[in-house]
TrEMBL record:
InterPro entries: Palmitoyltrfase_DHHC (IPR001594), PFA4/ZDH16/20/ERF2-like (IPR039859). It is found in: Membrane. Its EC number is 2.3.1.225. It comes from Entamoeba nuttalli (strain P19) (Amoeba). GO terms for molecular function: protein-cysteine S-palmitoyltransferase activity. This is Palmitoyltransferase. Keywords: Acyltransferase, Membrane, Transferase, Transmembrane, Transmembrane helix. It is a multi-pass membrane protein. It comes from the Eukaryota. It is an enzyme of class 2 (transferase). Residues 144-271 form the Palmitoyltransferase DHHC domain. It catalyses: L-cysteinyl-[protein] + hexadecanoyl-CoA = S-hexadecanoyl-L-cysteinyl-[protein] + CoA. Belongs to the DHHC palmitoyltransferase family. It holds the Pfam family DHHC.
């Protein structure tokens, strides 16, 4: 046998390489085009809107200030000045909780490395890259590795990327324009406190305004001054706004309290809906962090009465990032 007979023609080698590459591409597309890919719509989402959130923060601060001034003016004209410390304390608690929610950073996911094989990490990168190139949203919750194509790094279990904040946020709940940033691991507690104090203050202010209106109608209708008439109208409008605002925020308070009792963020609630629509190509179990309603609340709000009610009080303990109750990430594999 001659030496030349053991060589394979170059064209044949290239053809074989092309065939192998085509098979890999086809296999990759079959994997990545599974129904665990959620196609994005073309409407502008809240994360993609590039508005200035500080405008809404100023608006919210202005509404809170006007609510306080109008209620305070009405209150000092009522024969109940001796109970002023109660509504004043409630307002201070609301104002501080709002300030803390606005100024406390939610927390960034930095330099996270998942505990899984290189193959699983590579699959995560390919999933996200393919999804970004083809306009898909990846439903990858429960996978051992999740990759962010914007930060170009891996993200932890409960982290999600926010385009407006420009980073992956730890235990991201949602981006709230009224606080100018995301609600995440570090400011979730203050956000919940604010949601409770705002309706309480709104209803308290509405009662004070109505009481003031009744008193004015009983004593001041005979000789109404322009200033008196103006404040009566202003108080009536303020009472209506406070009632509407309290009802709207109370519904949000109920929703976020329910999620907190399940130890579930808004992002995970959305992912659950998407996950349940899938038939295959998804993690075998949807992750659960539920360890009981009380402990779920304590994981965010703290364990003492002061930490639940006082936004300036800190227990100086790290927030507990609970692992899965049924299955750990390290044991999840793609079927």
């Amino acid at each position: 046998m001659s030496q030349s007979s053991i060589f394979i023609p170059v064209d044949e080698i290239k053809a074989k390489e092309r065939s192998i590459q085509q098979d890999r591409n086809k296999m990759r597309e079959n994997l990545l085009k599974g129904p665990y890919l959620y196609r994005k719509n073309h409407n502008t989402s809240s994360d993609e809107f590039k508005g200035n959130d500080m405008i809404t923060v100023y608006i919210a601060s202005g509404i809170i200030s006007v609510m306080f001034i109008s209620s305070f003016y009405a209150f000092i004209h009522l024969p109940i000045i001796w109970i002023m410390p109660i509504p004043l304390t409630l307002f201070i608690l609301m104002a501080i909780s709002y300030y803390k929610a606005v100024t406390t950073k939610p927390g960034k996911c930095i330099n996270f490395q998942p505990k899984c094989s290189k193959e699983e990490k590579q699959q995560a990168i390919e999933r996200e890259t393919f999804g970004k190139e083809h306009g898909f949203k990846i439903v990858d919750i429960g996978y051992p590795a999740r990759y962010c194509t914007y930060c170009k790094s891996f993200r932890s279990e409960r982290s999600y990327h926010c385009k407006k904040c420009g980073c992956c946020v730890l235990r991201r709940d949602h981006h709230c324009p009224w606080i100018g940033q995301c609600v995440g691991q570090n400011n979730h507690r203050y956000f919940i406190q604010f949601l409770y104090y705002l309706p309480i203050n709104g209803i308290t202010g509405m009662i004070i305004q109505i009481w003031y209106l009744v008193k004015q109608m009983q004593t001041g209708l005979g000789e109404p001054s322009p200033g008196n008439v103006f404040f009566i109208i202003f108080s009536l409008i303020s009472a209506m706004i406070m009632f509407a605002m309290s009802c709207a925020v109370a519904s949000l308070t109920y929703h976020y309290s329910y999620l907190l009792s399940k130890n579930m963020s808004s992002m995970e609630d959305i992912e659950l809906v998407r996950y349940e629509c899938l038939s295959h190509h998804k993690a075998p179990h949807f992750p659960s962090y539920d360890i009981g309603a009380l402990k779920n609340w304590q994981s965010i709000m703290g364990t003492s009465f002061l930490s639940w009610t006082c936004p300036w009080y800190n227990e100086n303990k790290e927030l507990n990032q609970h692992s899965f109750t049924e299955i750990s990430l390290s044991s999840i594999h793609i079927d």
